[in-house]
Amino acid sequence: SPVIEAVAYFVVSEGLANIAKHAQASQAEVIVSRAGDRLHVIVTDDGVGGADPARGSGLVGLTRRAASVDGTFDVTSPPGGPTLLTVDLPCAR
Fold this sequence. Notes:
This protein has 93 residues and is of the alpha+beta class. Helices cover 37% and strands 31% of the residues. It has two helices and four strands. A hairpin with a 6-residue loop joins strand 3 (72-76) and strand 4. Helix 1 (2-23) runs antiparallel to helix 2.
């Protein structure tokens, strides 16, 4: 649906913007896949890590967007990296 497309788009665009602004990364990767009725989006980089939803509104906003369509959003970003943003969204056939 257009709503799911919009959430996936915002995850990718915010993730890449954060990488460009904060990660000091030399590489980023976006993986989009569909398994049954779920859409999976992963944005990852080889940067310095340390992304924390508590320190900014962008990642919190993505969490809220995913939740608004019964999806999930997760951030894994240990100090030293890498950072991994993962969203799982419903996607009817």
